[in-house]
Amino acid sequence: MSASTSIEGSRIAATVTAVREHFASGATRPLTARIRHLHALRAMLTENEPAFEAALWSDLHKSPAEAQLTELNVVVAEINHTLRHLRRWARPKRGPVPLALMPGRARLVSEPLGVVLVIAPWNYPVQLLLNPLVGALAAGNAAVLKPSELAPATASLIGRLVPRYFPDGAVRTVEGGVPEATELLAQRFDHIVFTGSGTVGRIVLRAAAAHLTPVTLELGGKSPVWCDDDDLPAVARRLAWAKFTNAGQTCVAPDYVLTTPDRVPALVGALKAAIAELWGADPRASQEYGRIVTEQQFDRLVGYLPGTDVVIGGDHDRGERYLAPTVVTLPDGGPPAVGPRAAHPVLREEIFGPILPIVPVASAEEAVEVINAWDKPLALYVFTSSPRTRRLFERQTSSGAVVHQAALVHAAATGLPFGGVGPSGMGAYHGIHSWRSFSHLKPVLTKPLWLDTLGLAQPPFTARGVRLIRRLMRHG
Prior knowledge:
- This protein is α/β, with parallel strands linked by helices.
- It has helices at 3-24, 31-46, 49-60, 64-90, 127-138, 152-165, 178-185, 198-209, 232-244, 264-279, 295-302, 364-372, 387-396, 431-437, 463-475, and strands at 93-94, 105-112, 115-119, 142-146, 171-173, 191-195, 215-218, 223-227, 254-259, 309-312, 316-317, 322-323, 326-329, 355-360, 380-383, 402-404, 425-426, 439-446.
- It has a 7-stranded mixed beta sheet, with helices on both faces.
- Strand 8, helix 9 (232-244) and strand 9 (254-259) form a beta-alpha-beta unit.
- The protein is globular, with a radius of gyration of 26 Å.
- It starts with a helix and ends with a helix.
C-alpha cells in the first residue's frame, strides 16, 4: 500500500468515525432535527438550481428541463411528501398482544438504524444519490454520500454544497473512484444503498456481509415491453420518450420490445415519427437529447450494432459521444430468447443506452415465456387494450414493477415502493417505504406483575395448566 493510499484510507475512516460520533450523540434523532435536515436538503437543491443544471449539462448533456424533470423535481417532491407525513409515520403505534400474554400492552416504536452509506451511479447523479438520503434523514440517521466519479461536475458540486447545508456533520460526502469506494465498503455502516450494475452489486453485498450490514440494491436489468395496442402513435411516443430520455441511460428504461411479427412494420413507422416529433429530424442538433457518459460506454454500445438490422437511427460520433435514437431488428435466428441463450449480444445483457431491439413473438403467451426464461427484470411495461393480457403479465411474470400503457413513470411515484426482485435488486424505497427501510420498528411489550398468568407456562406443570396454556397460545 502506498503512502497516499494509506492517507486516503485514514481520511475516509476518520470521516465515517466522525459521522458515527455525531449519530451517537443523539443529535439526529429528534423529530425537529429530522425536519430541519429535510428543509436543509430542499434548500440545497432549490437555492442552487442553475448550478445543478449546469453540472448535469456538463456531465450528461441533460437540458435544464430534463434536469428539473428527472432529477431536481423528483427529489424535492420526495422531500415535500416526507415532510407532510413524517409526524404520522414516526408516531408510536399500538401493537397486538396475544391472549396468552394478557394482561399486557405493546407499542411499535421506530428508531434510526445509525449511519447510512449511499453509493450513487452516474446516470441520475442527483436523484439516485439524494432520494435515498431523504428517507435516511427522515428516519433519524446520519449519512455518508459517495457520488459517482463518472459525473464529476455533479459530484464536485454536491461535495461543495453538503458542508454548507449540513454544517453539523450529519451528512458528509466522499468523492473519488474505485479506491475510495473500496475503502468506504471496508468501514462498518448500519445500512448501505447501492444503485448500479449487478457485478458491482455483488461486490457491495460481499463487503456488507463482513459486518452483517443490511443493504438496498437497485441493479436494473433488461426491462421488457409487450405491445399489441392499436393506438400506435400514442404508444410510440410514450415508448420513445421512456427509452431515449437521458440517451437511454436509465435503469428502468425499456430494454427490448416484444410484439407479434405483423405489428413490427407499423411499430417501426410509429417510433420513427415519434422520435422526430420529440427530438427533431436530427437529434444531434436537439438541445434536449443527451450524450453517452464516456467513450468506453460509447464503444460498448456501438459494438452492439453489427449483426443487427438498423431500422431507425444508428448515426454516431465518438468525438461527441453521440449515438442517435436507434431501433434495431434481428435476423431470424431461431426461437426468441433473452439472456445468455440469445443469439445476439444486444439481447444478452442490459443495453443501458439508446438502442431498442424489437423481438417478434407469436403471442403474449410466448412473450411471457421469453421474459420468464431469464432474470426477473426491474420493470415490465405492457401496452395493450386487453384486460386479459394485462392480467396475464401481472400474474405469470415477476418484476420489480408493472406499468400499463406507459413506461418509466413509476420511478416518480413517491408513494409507491421502488425496487427490484432477485437479480434486479433487493429492498425498496420512496415515501413511507424509505422511512421503513431506514428505521427499525422496535416492539415494546409490557407485562404487568399482577395477575401472573405466566405461572401457567412455568414449572411445576399440571395437566390442567398445560391444557389451558395450549388453548390460549393456539388462539393466536
